[in-house]
Known about the structure:
The protein is an alpha+beta fold. The chain is 56% helix and 9% strand. The chain is globular. The two termini are 26 Å apart.
Amino acid sequence: MKASEMEFLRAVAQHFNPDDEFSVSKVNLPEIFFLARKHNILPLVCDVLFPNCASDKLFKGEKAAAISCYLAQTVKSAKFLSVYEKLLSLKFRPVCVKGVTLRALYADGDLRPSGDEDLLISKQEEERFEKEMKNLGFELKRTGMNEKTYSDPETGLVVEAHISLFCESGALGETLKALFETESENTCWTEINGAKVLTLDAQSTILYLVCHAFKHFIRCGFGIRQVCDIAVYLRKYKGCIDFEKLQRDLSKLNAWVFFEGIVNIAREYLAFEDIAFESLDRKVETKELLEDILEAGIFGRGESSRQHSAALTLSAAGKKKRNPLITALFPQRETLAASYPLVARYKWLYPFFVWVRIVKYAFSVLFKRETNGTPAQSLKIAKERTELMKKYKII
């Protein structure tokens, strides 16, 4: 692992363990800030580095961006809690997942930016919810397979209203659906900045956080921020979690060793030794998984080759094996819908957008618009990540 990556991880670790101070090498600052942006935790990293780097010219530029991001998140957090209170007054009972409920566990939650706030609502409420969100000044921006995305033009707050937590198809989708078929019943109230918020209970939340990371992992990866989210949640609620039940549930996805790998990364590199539990296998390998996490960035958006490899890794993780070329050209509908949302609403558009995707990709490669997005690179990443999934007993 490069020195800059180690210092990046130590900076992240210090946010959660402020007594463990360290001095950063200024020669590594450009790469540290690159990683902080890549993993969408620039405000958090800048806050940690401030005492040692306040006079550095590069730091001053990054600090301005971090402050802007922090203030924007502060405004959006306040707006969301205000909107949530109004939704409760309108007799909705939306369940908060991730977002505000996770930020509340950080020393300063707005140092951890959120792209959106996720709410779980019932299918029966969907139409009325859309009407009331528009009455509250939100605009409907996107309709997916199981969610609608609303944006507030005034603050930039984005709210995703889900009718189910996962929409994957095939064996993975069936297992996830079974695991979360009663998720709307496994809820509890928590208080955030004086506001009452309904969220999943501890057992369901940790299961969801791991499954969410797992879903992204078998597509094109996830970043260090999700490791932090799982770690801070375990630190707070470890005593409320039945790890034997969690192991039974995650084993249905072949995700238990994957979870142990995440916990060991948090212990070894982010100073979360206190999240270890009795049945944890401390010998589970972490090096290659950590390298994949650092390379992936936030939700696997690190590079286009990795994103293009998603169809192949999804196929490898599924029970039905497909020819790699066929898989690359004709991905599953939910995979295609991530880039072309209309496919989620209109199944008959699938052939059209498959063709659009192929033509667009061909042009980007032929005219070298993408320097890291060639088919050979995508196949190489897919092969490496498939081998990694084998090591973690996912396939």
